[in-house]
Amino acid sequence: MIAANTLVESTELTHQSLTASLDEAAAMRNVPGQPRKGFERADTFLASASRHLNAVESVLLPVAQKRIDDSGALVHDYVRACKDLETALFHAKSREYGSAYAVTMRWEDVWSAIRQRLELQHRLERELAERLSSELASRDESELVDRLHEVEPGAASRPHPHAPHLGTKGRVARRLLHTVDSFWDTAESRMVPEPEHAPRKKPGLIAQYLLADPRFDEDEESGREQHQ
Asked: C-alpha distances in angstroms, 223 versus 214, 216, 227?
């Protein structure tokens, strides 16, 4: 999870991470005696990219459709670019696991197609973030960033370009595909990055009372002194 105060910051930080992960995946090398070892970086990139695309569609697009008056063209272009990128990601996944139709693809061509489509998706996502930022109050924008980061770790970890992307059908599809992807990730021993969890909030006074676990300032101060 990447911390950011605005949607634009979140978009830029996330894509910096995705680009770095793509560079590592494209530089993968075969490891003698460990045929799956060389694909760990590719698995990591494909899972991270798929999760991010699903999270944007789940969190940002519905808000854009409600809050941006002329969002139709922007949302349409974004979903189209997203599907094109997912198709390229799907080709990489197929090439990695030896699909008959993808085995003749050169890895250089596979990564090049992904890079080009990721750049377009990035441009449209940034435009989406900028438009939303201009419409939302700072608190609403911050909550949307938090929501995006909460959803991303539990999103589908594989590309599904032909699945529904918008509306009720999209929500249902994303929920089902996450379950299916989790099963196959385990079955194939696929390298999927562990999500980073946000720090737990301190319980309020009422929660402390209900839990019979009061926490006083001197207790916290004592705890800090013990760790110094």
From this structure: 14, 11, 7
pTM: 0.78
Give the span between the Cα atoms of 75 and 67, in whole angstroms: 12
CB atoms within 10 A of CB 175: 13
* C-alpha 95, offset from chain centre: 22
Tokens of 143: 């909550």
What is the per-residue pLDDT across 174-202, written as a single tens digit (0 to 9) for each?
A: 999 999 988 877 777 676 765 444 444 45
Beta-ladder partners of 216: none
For residue 75, give every residue at least 6 positions away whose Cβ sits within 8 Å of its Cβ, in sequence order, or none. Answer: 61, 64, 65, 128, 166
Q: Which amino acid is at 167?
A: G
Q: Which residue stretches of 152-197 are H helix?
A: 167-187
Domain extents in the chain: 7-187
